[in-house]
Amino acid sequence: MDLSGYLEMFIEESKDHLQAINDQLLKLETEPDDIGIVHEIFRSAHTLKGMAGSMGYDDLASLTHQMENVLDLVRNGKLAITSEMMDVIFTCVDLIEKMVDSIEQGGDGKEDVSEVVMRLGQIQNPTMEPTAEESESVSKTTAESQALEIDEFQASVIAQARETGKNVYEVTVTLDEKCTMKSVRAYMIFQAAEENGDIIQTNPSVEEIEEEKFGLSFTMLVITDRDARELQVQISNITEVREVIVSEKWNQEVHPLPQVSKETKVIAKQTEGQQKEKEEPDTAKKKHRSKSIRVDIDKLDQLMNLFSELIIDRGRLEQISRGSQLPELTETVEHMSRISTDLQGLILNMRMVPVEQVFNRFPRMVRDLAKELNKKVQLVVEGAETELDRTVIDEIGDPLVHLLRNALDHGLESTEERLASSKPEEGLILLKAYHGGNHVFIEVKDDGKGINREKVLNKAIERSVVTQEDAKTLTDSQVFELLFSSGFSTADKISDISGRGVGLDVVKTKIESLGGVITIDSKLGEGSTFRIQLPLTLSIIYAMLVKVEDETYAIPFNSIVEITNLSSDQVSTLYGQKVIQFRGQVVPLVYLNEVYQVPPIEEANEKEQLFVVIVRKGDKTVGLVVDSVLGQQEVVLKSLGGFLTNLFAISGATILGNGEVALIIDSNQFIK
Amino acid sequence: MEFSKIVAFKLGEEEYGLDINCIQSIERIEHITRVPNAPVYVKGVINLRGNVTPVIDLKNKLGLGHTEFTDMSRVIITKLEEIELGMIVDQTNDVIDIAADSIEAAASSFDSAYFDGVAKVAGRLIILLKLEELMKTGAV
């Protein structure tokens, strides 16, 4: 049978289960006595095994099986949890993860599992046979009666179906004992039944069946216009179905149908129990229609692209309607604008994903690192539900990994040092995400030794990043900023954890390419905080449109501090650099017509009025001199394509209401 | 030579050709937004149905001077892998079938990285261009 259709589902679900196992394992490590957690892990592992088995990934299934055996022993109190055991299980989970990744990339999901399997075997020693117990309990549930209970509503549906000449059958399906992925089989059976008619009731409920909370057989009530035999054949054709019994409902005499034999499988007869008409609300069917769907990310991107086209047209329409004297047109356009604003919010919202997606893998990473470094660390995650645009989420993982590693390796002291400075033995790393205005903030905070100003300065001087004289005048935050300059590492010895050549400068570059800002707070002896500020979305931004001679440029709103106009005699010169004094600060000026070599429209006559857009990067400001300010607008970011790359101070382009292209200014590059 | 159909166009008095498979469309010249700090031959970017597409002056790129825009001037939009690029030409002529044996490898006397060969079709000489080479020097 072709399983490729299920592959995606399999991968997604495996990942969910793996994540669950990882989370629970970490929990288990802190509360080794909580047997409930073991149950959780066992369940996930069990489902994983089943899925892998039926998809034909035998290595994966056998490895999971071994792990499950160990867990089973723990679950039944026959084995105590030891840290060696946890390590083996973690390795095992890693291997499984690797396999799933390989499957996702189109591989065969094969890995060398022998060593881990052996170690798992050793743990299990003396060997027991947990599987025997398990199958016993399974067969017990099988024996239970499968009678269907029908409520009034269903009774009326059945009555109606009869009137229209449809048949109502009770179908009892028994799966093969070897069937490993029962819920999938059940799902396929439902599918087959629904192709032929409607399922109005099942026992156990659909939900329970989906969660594999059933033995080997289940019963469903089907309305169909096929006859019983056809239905039986259809369902029997599904693999691993041992027996199908179709009996007509609501007739006192029961017609057990001749069974369709499948290969050599045994077919048992089962007579129909009577039906009870009991009022029991049945919501299983309704619950089955789940409230969320999985959508291909490409489709969302496409939607976003199409919508941005619409925004461009909206801009154009607004311009036309403003120019025309047609109140009807203006009204319609205004209405459209409102709707599209709502729509935009909705679409942007759809692309938002909780940072949890990224945060999820950190507890595990921190645990492993802490072990490696022989430090005791507690990672506290806050605000994992904070949402961010998917495009940002995809990019934020690596910088965060780096910051966390940094906090663990350089931030936190060793256990002895901590004890010596009368701090709790266990270090604390706080990973926190929260919303603030149009931004999302992510903080990585540790309660370690903090950044040593002198140490940073010495290093900086040594690497000639700053001069001895400058060093004295630098503020603390300026000193911390030095950590971001390239090729900087304050750790005395280079370790495997963070000193691998990529420094914090890479982190900074990455964050800035996402339109974000990173800052450091630190107190010596008390710890440091790295704070990342990110825009909510990257695709639609607010921008101020400005004119330079005859050309229009867009300046992203989030970098603008203020717009002011000055007369030309307020400009003075400092070391050949034109500056203005603005709110007690000296702000250097950048003449856009010069840096962009804008061809002048007419003979350059000294302008008396200057429009200055003051932009900021960190705590530095610079004034961009423009000819006029056109107004603010929501613009759709477009890339300039692969041909034009690395243009100075241009981050992209956008299409204006009149269909012309305006370039977006990357003001960060004016500030050194 | 994999050429079979080419789009023929004029730069000055000379005829050039590009493989039709990498040509998206041929557009009239509308507003071009100048891109500062880009190479000289880059005329700017245009809005091509919602896509921002860079446009180069092909004549300038090949070292044949500058293009004066006329009513006959067109932008040929090409696409190779993921890169889209518009090229301004003086005039587009037609689409021609070219047999492999009518193509002569570029003579060493006018050696240029951009030339792929010369096709002789009914007395016309058409210089075939290598698109991948034209796109290569995108970065300054």
Mean pLDDT of chain A comes to 76
**Helix-and-strand structural type of chain B:** mainly beta
CATH fold name of the largest domain in chain A: Heat Shock Protein 90
- Termini separation of chain B comes to 31 Å
> How large, in whole angstroms, is the Cα Rg of chain B?
15 Å
Protein structure class of chain A: alpha+beta
Low-confidence stretches of chain A: 126-146, 251-289, 491-501
Total helical segments of chain A: 22
Give the oligomer, counting copies of the same chain as homo and different chains as hetero: heterodimer
Q: Count the strands of chain A?
A: 24
Overview of the molecule:
- The complex is a heterodimer of chains A (672) and B (140).
- Chain A is built from 22 helices and 24 strands.
- With 672 residues, chain A is an alpha+beta fold.
- In chain A, helix 1 packs antiparallel against helix 2, helix 4 (83-104) packs antiparallel against helix 5 and helix 15 (362-373) packs parallel to helix 16 (390-411).
- The two termini of chain A are 62 Å apart.
- Helix content of chain B is 7%, strand content 50%.
- The longest helix of chain B is centred in the C-terminal third of the chain and has 6 residues, at 131-136.
- Chain B is globular.
- Classes of the chains: A alpha+beta (672), B mainly beta (140).
- The A-B interface holds A 305, 308-309, 312, 551, 595-599, 638-650, 653-655, 659-663 and B 30-31, 33-38, 42, 44-47, 50-54, 82-85, 135, 138-140.
Topology:
The complex is a heterodimer of chains A (672) and B (140).
Chain A: H1 4-30, H2 35-55, H3 58-75, H4 83-104, H5 114-124, H6 130-143, E1 149-150, H7 152-163, E2 167-175, H8 182-196, E3 197-203, H9 206-210, E4 217-224, H10 228-236, E5 241-248, E6 276-277, H11 284-288, H12 297-323, H13 327-350, E7 352-354, H14 356-359, H15 362-373, E8 377-382, E9 387-389, H16 390-411, H17 415-420, E10 427-436, E11 439-446, H18 453-462, H19 468-473, H20 476-481, H21 504-513, E12 517-523, E13 527-535, E14 540-548, E15 551-556, E16 560-567, E17 572-574, E18 577-582, E19 585-591, H22 592-595, E20 609-617, E21 620-626, E22 628-636, E23 650-655, E24 661-665
Parallel strand pairs in A: 1-6, 8-10, 15-24, 19-21
Antiparallel strand pairs in A: 2-4, 2-5, 3-4, 7-9, 10-11, 11-13, 12-13, 14-15, 14-22, 16-20, 17-18, 18-19, 20-21, 23-24
Chain B: E1 5-11, E2 14-19, E3 23-28, E4 42-48, E5 51-57, H1 58-61, E6 74-80, E7 83-89, E8 91-97, E9 103-105, E10 115-121, E11 124-129, H2 131-136
Parallel strand pairs in B: 2-11, 5-7
Antiparallel strand pairs in B: 1-2, 1-8, 3-6, 4-5, 6-7, 9-10, 10-11
